[in-house]
Amino acid sequence: MAHRDKKDEEDGLVNPFLGLEKSTVLQEARAFNEMPIRVSKCLMILTKLLFLIHQGDTLGTREATETFFSMTKLFQCPDVRLRRMVYLTIKAMSTISEDVIMVTSSLMKDMTARDDTYRGAAIRALCTITDNTTLQSLERFLKQAIVDRNPSVSSGALVSSLHLLNKGHDVVKRWVNEVQQAASNNSAMSQYHALGLLYHIKAKDRLAVQKLVATQIKKHLSSPFATCQLIRYSLKVIEADPDANHDDLHDFLESCLRNKSEMVVYEAARAIVNLKNVTARQLAPAVSVLQLFLSSPRPVLRFAAVRSLNKVSISHPNAVKTCVLDMENLITDSNRSVATLAITTLLKIGNEASVDRLMKQITSFMNEISDEFKIVVVEAIRSLCLKYPQKYPVMMSFLAGALRDEGGYDYKKAIVAAISGIIEHIPEAKEAGLAQLCEYIEDCEHSALLTTILHMLGERGPSTPSPSKYIRFIYNRLILESSIVRAAAVDALSKFGSHCESLRPSIIVLLRRCLMDTDDEVRDRVTLALTLLEGNEGAAFMNQLPLSLSSLERALKEYVAEPRDQPFDINAVPVEVDTTEKSALDDMFDPEQRAENEARLAAVPELAQLNLGPLFKSSPPTQLTEAETEYVVKAYKHVYQSHVVFEFNITNTLNDQILEQCTVIMEGGEQEIDEDDVVIVPAPKVMYDKPASAYVAFPLDASIASQTFETTLDFVVKDCDPETGEEDPEGYPDKYELEEIELGFADYVSPVTRPNFAQAWQALEDKGGESEDVFELTSMTNLQEAVDQVLKLLGLSACERSSTVKEGKNRHELFMAGMYVGGQEVLARARLAFDEHVSMNLCVRAPSEELSQLVLSCIE
C-alpha cells in the first residue's frame, strides 16, 4: 500500500496514488484493448502499474501475463510518450510475466525503424527480455546499433551489451571491433559506455586490461566521463602490480590535473593521493590542485577537496601543511560537513604550538554540528593527544566537558573510548582520566557505557597511587543501578580486593552486603569473589588464560559429540591474541580467520581422517615464486597439536594451459618422518587465474627449533584454447622448482599479552624451567631493529608496550609472552644494551627447562 511521505505533508503535497489498489489497476488495464486507443488514459494506467511494481506489490504470474498481453496492443499507437512508457513497463514486467518473447517482433521493428525516436529505448527493452537462445539472432542488429551515428542509439546498444555480458559473454566479446569504433565516437556518453564495455570484456585478462589502458591514454578522450573512468582503470592497473614500471600511467594522471573539466581534475588528484606507494614528488601537484579547490565557491568541490586532503594527512601529513591557512578558513564554512573535515584534518597535521588555538576553535564549533560529526572530531582529538602526549591536560579537559554535554550513546561511547585510549598510552593521564570517568558514571544513563567504565576502573584503578578513592563510585553502582551494571561493579570491586591487600577487608565487607541481591548472576559473582578473596586466591582475577571463545565452543561440541574416557583438555584450545598492539600479522591471529581456516581444512577428506582437532595457529603466506612467473605459489603453515599442514595456493597465469594433479614434493628437514605418516593431497585441476590448493601434512615434532624443506611443484600440463577453454585430451608431466620453506619455533607459539608481566613472571619462578644466556647481535645497528628481529624470530608478543624503544636510549628491557603448542606458557625477558653493537641478556621461563632451552636455541 502506498504511503504519504512526511515531507510531502509538510509541503502541502498529496500523493495522487495514495490508497491505490492492485485489483482496481488490473481492472483498468482492460482499457488497453479499447479502440481507438486513449493515450492519456493508457499513460495513467501504465504509470499506476509501474508505481505498484516499484512499491513492492506482487503481481501473480497469470494476471501479469494477461496485462502484458493487453499492453502489446498499444504498439499500434504511434504516440511517442505512450511508446516510451510501454518500453518501461516491458522492462519492469519482464521477470514476472510469461511469454514476454511475444513482443520481440514489435521491438525489433522499432529497433530497425528509420525514426531514431524509438530506437535507443527499444534496444534497451529488447535486451531485457533476451536470453541465450535468442541473443545470436540479434547479434547483427546490435553490432550495427553500437556503431550508429545517433548517440542515443549507440549508448543504448552499449549499455544493453554490458548487461548481456552475464548472459552471453562469448557472444558479446566478438563485438570488440565495433565497441572500439564506438569508443572513438565524439559523443561523450557513447565514448564513456564503450570504454566501460571494453574493460568488462577484458576484465578477466590482466594483460589485456593493461594493453587497453595503455592504448586509451594515448587517445586524449574528449568525454570527461570516459576520462574519469580511464583514470580509475589506470589506478587499478597500478595497484594490481605496484612493483612494475608505470611511468606512462603516472604521467597520464598528472596530465589530467590540467584538464579543463573540474570533474576530471578531481578524479586525477584523488587517484594520485590514493596510490599506495606514492612519492612526495608525485603527490605535490595533486595537493596543489586540491588546495585550489578549497577556495572554490562550489560547496561540493570544497567538500571533495578537504575529504581527500583528510585522507592524505594520515599517511603524508607534511604534504598537507601548505594548506593549513586555507583549511582554517573553512572552519567557519556554512557547510558543516566541510567544516568538520577541515578541523579534523588540521588536528592531524597541526604542530604542538597550534594545539591550544585549535582546541579553542573546536569548543565553539562543537555545539553547531550533529553527533555524527562530533564523533569524527573526538577521534581526531584522540589521535592528536597520542601524537603530542604532553598536551594531554588540554584535550582531557575538552573530552571531560564533552561528556557532560548533551549527546547520544554513540557520541558518548566515542568519548569514553578516546579517554580510554589516552589512559592506556599516556600513563601520566591515568588518574585524571579515571577521575573524569568516575564523575560521568554518577549521571550516566547508558548501561553499556557503565559496564565498560566499571571494567576499566577494575583494570586500571588498583595500580594508581590512591586506589581507595574509586571504591565509593563503584559501590554506588551496586546500590543504584540495574543488575547488569551491578554485576560489573562486583567484578571491579573484586579486582581491587585482589590487587590491594590493604583494601581487601573493606572490599569483603562491601561484597557481603550484596549476598542477598535479587539477581542470580550478581549473587553468584559475589559468592565467587568472596570465596577467592577470603581464601587468599585473589590472583585468580589476574592473568586469566585468554581463550578464543569460538574455538572453545567448537572444541566442547566435538568433545560432547563423541563420548571419551579422558577429561577435556583445555590446553588444546587456541588462545586469543590481544590486538591492542597492531602488527602486520593481525589477520593470522583473527579468531574468525582461524575458524575459517579450520573449517576449510576439515572439509578436505584426506585431512579429516587424521583427526587433527582444533587449529592452534596459521602462519602468514610465504611466497615460493616470483610474482611475475608463469606459476605463482604461496604457502601457509597450519599447526595443530599433533600435526602440521602445509597449504600451497597455486595460481596458473598462462591462459593457454591447464594444470592437473598438482602436487608439492617436500624434501629435507631434520625431522625423521615415516612415509606412511605423510599425507599428500594434490590440487586436481588449476585453471587460468583461478587459484587452487594442494596440501602436505605430517606429524609435528615441535622440539626442533628450525628446519628447512626444499619444495618442487609436480604436475601434468594440458594445452587449451584461450578463447573457448577447450583442452587437449593428452597432457605431459612437468616439474617446477620452488623456493625453500622454513618451519621454526615461531610457528609453534601463539603470541599473548600479560597486562601484569611481573606477576606472571613471578608465577613461573617455581616451575623450574628457567634458562638464561647472553648474545652479541653484531648485525643489528640499533636497539629498535634488535627488538623487532627478536620478536619476529621468537613469535612472542611484546607486553607492557615494551616493543618500542624511546629515542636516544642505549638500554632497553623487552618483555615477551606466548603460548606454546599444547598449552604451555612461555615468558621471556630481554635486556638489551647498545655500544657499537647490540648485546642482549635473554632469560626465559617455561614449565620445563627443555622448552626454555629450545627458545634460547632460536637466537643465532
Automatic annotation (TrEMBL):
Entry's Gene Ontology molecular function annotations: structural molecule activity
Localization in the cell: Cytoplasm; Golgi apparatus membrane; Cytoplasmic vesicle, COPI-coated vesicle membrane
A GO cellular component annotation in the UniProt record: endoplasmic reticulum
Keywords from the UniProt entry: Cytoplasm, Cytoplasmic vesicle, ER-Golgi transport, Golgi apparatus, Membrane, Protein transport, Repeat, Transport
Quaternary state and interactors: Oligomeric complex that consists of at least the alpha, beta, beta', gamma, delta, epsilon and zeta subunits.
Protein's UniProt name: Coatomer subunit gamma
Domain Coatomer subunit gamma C-terminal: residue ranges: 746-859
Gene Ontology biological process: endoplasmic reticulum to Golgi vesicle-mediated transport; intra-Golgi vesicle-mediated transport; intracellular protein transport; organelle transport along microtubule; protein secretion
Family: Belongs to the COPG family.
Function, as annotated: The coatomer is a cytosolic protein complex that binds to dilysine motifs and reversibly associates with Golgi non-clathrin-coated vesicles, which further mediate biosynthetic protein transport from the ER, via the Golgi up to the trans Golgi network. Coatomer complex is required for budding from Golgi membranes, and is essential for the retrograde Golgi-to-ER transport of dilysine-tagged proteins.
Domain of life: Eukaryota
Bilayer disposition of the protein: Peripheral membrane protein
Main location class: cytoplasm
Domain Coatomer gamma subunit appendage Ig-like subdomain: from-to ranges: 597-743
InterPro entries reported for this sequence: ARM-like, ARM-type_fold, Clathrin/coatomer_adapt-like_N, Clathrin_app_Ig-like_sf, Coatomer/calthrin_app_sub_C, Coatomer_g_Cpla, Coatomer_gsu, Coatomer_gsu_app_Ig-like_dom
Clathrin/coatomer adaptor adaptin-like N-terminal domain span: 21-534
Species of the source: Monosiga brevicollis
